Each structure stands twice: as C-alpha cells, then as structure tokens.
Batch of 4 targets.
Target 1
Amino acid sequence: MSPEELEQIAEEERERQAGFKHKVHVCVAAGCQSCQSDSVKSALEQELSKRDIPGGCQVKGVGCMGLCAEGPLVSTNRNVLYQKVGAQDSSAILDSLEGDPVANLVCPTDVPFFQSQKKIVLENSGNIDPERIEDYIAASGYTALMQVLTEMSPGQVIEEVSRSGLRGRGGAGYPTGLKWSTVAKASGERKYVICNADEGDPGAFMDRSVLESDPHRVLEGMLIGAYAVGASEGFIYVRAEYPLAIKRLRIAIKQAERLGILGNNICGTRFSFRIDLRLGAGAFVCGEETALISSVEGKRGTPRPRPPYPAQEGLFGEPTLINNVETYANIPPIIRFGGDWYAQIGTEKSKGTKVFALAGRVKNTGLVEVPMGITLRQIVYDIGG
C-alpha cells in the first residue's frame, strides 16, 4: 500500500458515494441494535428495492449517533435525524427524501445535547460504515499513517504528540508524548504496544462505542504509536462482554492486513506491525496496566508494584506502550492537523476533548464529546437534560 494507492481507494469510494443523491444512515451500534435497528435497516433496504428513487438512494449502517435514549436513530443527508424508528416507518422515511420530514419521528438537533459537542474522536461516528475500510479511507482514514511513514521520523511524531498536550484518556491523565518518548528511549530486544479496552467502570460505554463505530481509527493510532516507539507487535485487550466491538475489530484487522496496512514492510518501508486481540474475562482489576499485562501474558491479572514501569519493563519484560482506546483515537487527527491545532482546544493544562457516557438519572442517555474545561453541571443538566 502506497500513499497513491490509498488516495485511489479514497477517490473511488467518494465517487461511488457521490452516485447517490439520497443517503439514509441507520445506527448499528450496540445501543440501537438492542432496540432492533437491524430490522429497521432491513426494512429500509427492502422498501428501497421496490422503488426507483430519482438520483438513487443508499441505505448504510453507521456507528453511534450519540442520543442512545431515543434509538433506533436514522439520519438522512437532508440533515434530518429521526428517533425511535421502527421497521414500519421505512416507507414514510423514504417518502420524506423528496418531501417533508416525518413530523412524529423528527429528533430536534438544535438542543444543547448536540450543540455543545465538539467531535474529534467521534468525528466519523454516525457517518461511516464501521465494517468497510473503504469508507474509513474515504474519510481521510490512514492518511496520517502514510504521512508519518513517508515524511516524519519517529522523533518528529513524538514531538507533534507532545506539542498537542494530549494526556492519557484512561483516567490518570499522564502526558502522552512523555510516555511515548520514554518507551522510545528504553532499551530492549523488542517493544510492544497495547490498547487498553478493558472498560469496566459501571455505566461507561465510551471505548465500546468507539470500537463499534470507528475501529480503524484505533488501529491507525496504534500503528502511529508503534512507529514512534519502535514496536513491531501490538495487542488490544478488550472485554469479552463487548461482542460487537470484538467482531468489528476482527473485521478491521483482516481488512487492514488485506490492504497491506498491517503486516510486513508497510507502505514500502522497513516498518512492520501486527495486532492481535486478547479477550478479558471481566476482572475489573485488569483495567490497571500491570494487571492487564499479566493477563495478556496468560497469567492471573494481578497488579504489581511500580517501578519498574511498563515503559521500561512491561509485556514479557520488554518496554511496552499502553494507552487506552480514546487516547489512540486522538492520534490520527493530531497528525493530520498538527499538535498546535489540538492544543488550541480545551484548557491550559488539559487539551482537546473528552468523550463521556451519560447514563442513570438523566433524560438524554447517550454518548457525548465535549471540550476539556466544561463543567459537570453543564454535562448533567444542559447536555444530559
């Protein structure tokens, strides 16, 4: 895979999508699937097969649209969002493509839940098909990786991440660039990259939604991290209770391998990298990085004292880079737009955005991404309703 070949795939996919005058997106993330969004998508496809819509119409399954409380959610390219859609509504929705919106299904989007958000990690969620790598590539996917491999040294990548001010989104808030530079400087026979997707906090579904909605974004972030620190092998440690996320990760890994984005001599360079999944059995303690490492090694997930830190002595005793799902998902846009761009968002000490899962006693259960510095009151009362 070369940058030219990647661009060709992107252009072909954009041209294919441009051939449809109308687009209908159906959320197929776990929240909406639990409300039978698959049957909604099937009903729309069946109804579409009976019609000859001028200009053509594409029905596509996409990732999380955010407002899970009102699922199943369906959107159209006329900037209309429909809520609590059933299979019986398919005919009315297709009718609305050339007419007025279906009034009793319209979900208002001029409300704080949507207006207060700034999407970086979730920029593709609700727009791309998580099971088609071509859709990700058409949305500038893997361009950051190609830029890194063909134009930047590992040190320049770490410098860009450091300039962004990104801190680990797993909870500790450790500077990502500093962690990467520590692993890069560490000596060992080989180095590893681990993605911590062991999301065990009650009511939390941020990482799950990202993996279900945009799995290639996480793979791309891991690839860039591996190049920066000199690793050749990676693992995603994901909870076995996340079957849809696991399914889509496996599809994404196979697709990336098929195109030569994962494997040996990526982009014609000396950089090689492979990713495997490791399924966690639900032990909350395995969210802690040393316990997670122990579990990946096939041992009981037990934390150990630090130092030594994983950056010096981690998986199989070798230097290991561990970040969580959301941290890796921030990396591609930081490379594409620059660390200075990212550093302009958020506060003086906490840059960028944060993804939050809203659950419990709020009206608007769902997934939101907001700038760092927003208050809990705004999240709970304004966005959560």
Note: The radius of gyration is 21 Å.
Target 2
Amino acid sequence: MSSLRRSPEKIRLPQGFAFSAIAAGIKVSGRPDLALVEATGGASAAALFTQNRVVAAPVTVGREALRSSGGRVRAVVVNSGNANCATGRQGIQGCEEVCGVAGDMLGVDATEVFPSSTGIIGVKFPAAKICDKLPELFAARSAGERGILAFAKAIMTTDTRPKIASVKLRVGKSEVAILGIAKGAGMIHPQMATMLVYLFTDVSASSRELQLVLRAACDQSLNCMSIDGDTSTNDTVLLLASGLSGVRLANVQARKKFSDALSGVCQSLAEQIVTDGEGVQHVIRLSVEQAGSREEALVVARTIAHSMLVKTAWAGADPNWGRILAAVGRCGVDVDPSRVQIFIGKQKVCRNGVGCAFDERQAHRALAQPECDVRVQLGRGRAAVQFLTTDLTAEYVRINADYST
C-alpha cells in the first residue's frame, strides 16, 4: 500500500494568479480569517456545490454569479470562522455587499467576484468588518509561495495543517501548471462536493470544458472519501483557468493529459483531507470489488464507512469483520452473503459470508497502523471502487462537542 499524502507538496504556480490573506477579526483566536485569490487577467470557471438542501449564502450567490457572468471570475474572496449559513436575507445581502466592494476595487461587476465561507452556522455575517478589511487584503497580494501558504492557512477551521497539491505537465512545447488548495477535516462526506477546494490552472478552456473535466476528476477522488458522513452546507469545488499557457483543452491530447493531472491533484487533496480528519488515528483504504456497477460499489463503501460500529472497531484496531459484513447486508444492494469475501490487510478474514481461520494478532497489527487496506468482494460483477475513510475516536467527539464554544 502506498503511503497517503499528509502535507503540502512542492508548489507549482500557474500563470495569472495572486494570493493574500489577513486577519479580519472574524475568528475569536485573532488568526488570519480572510483570504483572496485574484485572477489578474480574468479566468474561465467551473464549480461543483453541496447537495445539502440547507445552502449557505455564498453558495447561492456564487452559483448565480457564475450563471450571470457566463463563467468568468476575476477574484475569489473566502472567509473562515463564519459559515454565513442560516442567516436569512441579511446573509445574502452581506455576501453581495462584499462581492460588490471587491468588484469596485477591481473595476469589474460584482458577479465576477466569487464568495466562499466556512465556519459556524447560524451566526450573523460580519459584512461590514470584511468590507473594511478588503483594501488591506488587496494590498497584500502576492504571486508566489508566501501568498499561497497564507491563503491556505487562512481558510482553515479545525484543520491542523494546510492542504496543497500541484503539478506541471508538458503539452507539446508548452508547460501547464495545476495548483489545488483545500480545507476540510470534519463534516466530510462526498456528495459533489464536500469541503472547500480551489483549483487553478493556466490552460485555455471554456467553462463547459472545465465543468466536464472537473466532474470527472472529483468523481474519482474527492467524492470517494468520507470522514463522518456529514455533508456541509458550504461545500464548493471551484476550478479557474487563466488561459495564459496557450494550451487549449479543445485539443484531445491536451485534454487527456490535463484531465489525468487534475485527477492526480484532486486525489492528493482528498488524501490530505482524510489524513487530517478530526481526531483520526487510522485511515482506511476501503476497496469494494466485484460489484454489479460502480454506483453499487459506492453504496456499499459508504455504508461501511459510515457505520459507527465499524469505525469504532477500527479505532481500537479490532479486526471485527462481522460488523463490516453486517453493514454490507443492510446497504440496500441485493447482495448474496454467501458470496462475500472480506480481507483485512493481506489476510482473508471472511470467506463466503462465514468466518475463516486467520491470525488475529496480525490483523490487529495491520489495523493499528496509520493506514490499512480493507477489501470487500461482493461476487456480483466486475465493478470496483476505492474509498478513503477513517476511524471514529473520542477526540472527534471532543472537537465537535466544543466547536461552537
């Protein structure tokens, strides 16, 4: 099993973007909580949003802005410490006010400013405080690693470390860069999308072209992970393309190379999010194999990953395969238990739905590692999915019991 990525990688910056972050007094801690990305020449954009029916104001405003602007974005303004969710009309107006002031500073329409928020739900949105700090935020812009790291740290809430992934690829005689920055450690459950993720590139592409590659990349990565089964009200994945590399996605070869590279960046971010999960001690790489379809495999994987009994067994490194089998049986897929096989690490622990002889100490040692493979074979077909998930610990309970206070 290859080791999951846990910390920021070498940063490769696409052309056409500048970053900044400051403390605006939103977080009680006084830490940086307001961040900016400027697409200096404008960018094409595509986005995926939460499937939660309770939707934060910036998701509503951002989604409409992309429609109104034809998928053009000049700047992204992100605040942490306040989700601006369940804040009524005041929350929408406050979000629009921030976008309007930022747009005026850039000389563009408010619809070209994309908003994001993360933090506590149901707290009045401090629009005036944010607007007062925008001149300082814009003055701090930097097209380098320092600005990127400042941005990545300012959007954190319960995260313990920033999450950054980037890559450069050669297409013909040109180079293309992709940079991803994410936040997320709790309230993580993949439903397109689950967390805040910002992706930047210098390819030339339409919003429609970006939407297709973004959805494909997320399906294989960010939507194949879960920490606690909760889908946030603010989840956003935003992809911006400056076009400054001159490489066009309309070219089939370029699109294939770019799509593979984007998937790799998203996979790295997914791994970084899971390994930084709230209170996480063990990350499980769960493979569901021999399913009738990929959708069927996902249903099984999510049911196992969200079982409190399974997750607490993993917390104790207890090779209690019966809990996994029971989760498979209640997932809603027409599984024949007599065809199910379960593996923990390299050992088969359940054969044809029945326990079989295995070394329990070895299985315990495998689960006690920071990362462990668990495989479930359904005996129904050829489809499979790899799903990243975690254990459930007392520390997770402590973090979330105290979160708002």
Note: The mean pLDDT is 91.
Target 3
Amino acid sequence: SEQEIQTILSGLWFFRFPPRLEKAYRAHALTESIKTYRFNGLYALGVFAIICMAVYRLIPEDSITSTMQAYSCALAVMVGVRIFSLFRVLDQWFNRYVTTSSIVMTTIAVYANNAIPMGAGSTLSYIGLTYILFFIYCFVGLRLQLAMMANFVGGIVGVILTYALGSQMDWHIMPPTFATASFLAMFLAYGLGRQGRINFLQSYLLNLSLEKSKKQSREDALTGLANRRYLNEMLVVE
C-alpha cells in the first residue's frame, strides 16, 4: 500500500523491504543490471586495455612476460563475462558468474601488484587495481553484499597466492591502497544502491497512484459500482 511504501521511504539509511516487495525489486534490479553491464562491459574492456598498454611501456623488460600473462587472464575473464551477458538464457546466473569473475579479477590484480616488479609502471598498476575495485562495486550491477564478498575474498586469495608462489607483499603500500579504494568504492556503491531503491519505490508509488485514478474513473462515486466508461471498455474487450 502507499502507506507502507511511505513508511519504508522514511526509514532512512538501511532499507528492508517486505519479502514480496524485495523479490520484485531484485527481479527489477537484475534486469537493469544486465542491461547496464552490456554497455559498461565494453567500456571496462576499453579502459583496462589502455591501462595495460600504458603499463607495458613502463615496466622492466624482465617483467613483461609475467605482467602480460596476468593482464591477459584478466582481459579474458572480462571478455568471457561480456559474452555471457549477451545470452538471455544465462540471465538467472548473472550474479553468480559476475561475482566469480570479480573475485578472479581482484585476485589477479592483487597478485600482480605484489609479485611482479613493475618499476616505473607501479603507479599505473595500482591505478588499475583501484579501477577494478570501483568497477566491481559500482558498474557491474552487483548488490553491495556480493560486491563486498568479491572484494574481500579476491583480496585474501590474492595475498595467499602471492606467498604461495614465493613472493612477498609490500605491507606499506598494498593494504592502505586496497583498503582505501575498497572503502571509497563501497560508500559510492551504497549511495547508488540506496538511490536505486528509492527510485524503485517512487515508481511503485506512481503506478499505485495511476491504478487508483484508473479505478476511480471506472466507478460511480456514490455507489462504487462500475460506470458507463467501464462498460464501454469491457464491450471493446469482449
């Protein structure tokens, strides 16, 4: 009802929709996320490719092979997810395969920044990591909880992989950079998600208002019975 929706809208920071409304919102959000990703996926590929080319020009020669291998894996994951998003039969699995790919991307980025000597390309490499985190939180359409899981799981796996392959992590640079980028992206994603829920509820209110007006135009104000206008509409239908 309108009263219930107004109550939710006045609930400020953390929305908790009733089960039926939450289900409707998630179905709506999933559809919108897939549409958005089909565009943002191309944008992401272009920007990441530019970063890769810029890093390639700056890193030491003995790091070129390992860096390109890591970045090629990341690009392959991005291309794969972009292709998956084009098949409607896979729409129901969107959150799962995007979350999985986000974990893989974060793992690769953390490992590459820790294990591969980047030389003059270090700054750009960290920019690439920050870009990946912002993309996961804000541009792939994941719910905040899923984006947070992908972020932290990918970071932990990246650190484990770094030490498992015999490298060391620079604790003076990586943790502050990763944490700062993660929290900034998280707050931005929270704001976008909250605004998305507000927009959904406002559109829901508008639909209720239109339905109410439509119903009132079909009923006699005194008796509440269907009027001549409703009869004419039903004659057309029949």
Note: The helical segments are 2-9, 19-58, 64-84, 94-115, 122-138, 144-164, 174-217, 228-237.
Target 4
Amino acid sequence: MSNDIFSRLHRKMTLTYSLIFGVVSMLVVGSIIVLNAWSLLGIEKNELYDKIVHEGEEWVSSKEAPVNEKELNTGDMLAYFVTTDGKTVILDQLGVGNAGKSILSKRQEWPRLEEKTKLLVMKDNDGNKYHYLAGVAEIKDGNKSIGILYMFENF
C-alpha cells in the first residue's frame, strides 16, 4: 500500500516538474526569438535610413530615381519625394499596385523626421495585408533643403 502511494507521488512530481521545465524552456526560447527579431528589425531600420540618405545624395548629384524599375514593379521598394513643406511632389514612385495605393492612403501614419523609421501594417480594399518598413530623411544640397524622401521596403 505504501508502495502505491509513493508510486503515485512519484508520477505526480514527475509530471509537475516536467510541466514546469517545459514552460520555462518555452519562455526562454520565446524570449530568444523575440530578442533576435527586435535586433534584426533595428538593423533593417538603420540600413533603410542609410539607403534613403544615399539615394537622396544620388538624387542631388544626378537626379537618379531612388528606386529602380524592377523593385518598383515587384513592390519590394517604393519611394515618395516631396518638398520640405510636403505640398509639392517631386517624385512619386509608389507604383500602380494596391500596395502603393494603401501606403498613400495611410500617409498620416508615415514616420516623421525625428522617428526616421516605422513599421507600417496595412490592408487594401481587397483584404490583402501589407507590411512595409517606412523611412524618411531630409535631403539637402549643401545647406539648402531640397525636400523629404520617404522610402518603403516590403517587409
């Protein structure tokens, strides 16, 4: 009889400890995944901002469009360049697809200059969901401000 009690106690303790170990393991693995994702997002944000600055410098020196035709057609990268006051469009490279239309319709959610980058999650009228990493930088020619360049990377 006492052997039966110890056997049940042993099974109960084994199950309890296994459950605790499983939960702790899942928390550790989940934390590692979240930290890695956060770190990668930070790297992507920095790279996007650097690309915007570089493309702005190219625009100033050669008037070369920030996004090439292939990226524009696939929607992998989009751009929108406006005057500093935001009233005059210098270059619209949002394309003709639903993603570009969705981005333009969410203009109030675009990052501000002090934010530099922001992750945008949008849906179009057909229910398609889009994730774009958006970035912004002021483009200058020497000390003269040319405009504000927004770039959107499919994420």
Note: The first helix runs from residue 2 to 62.
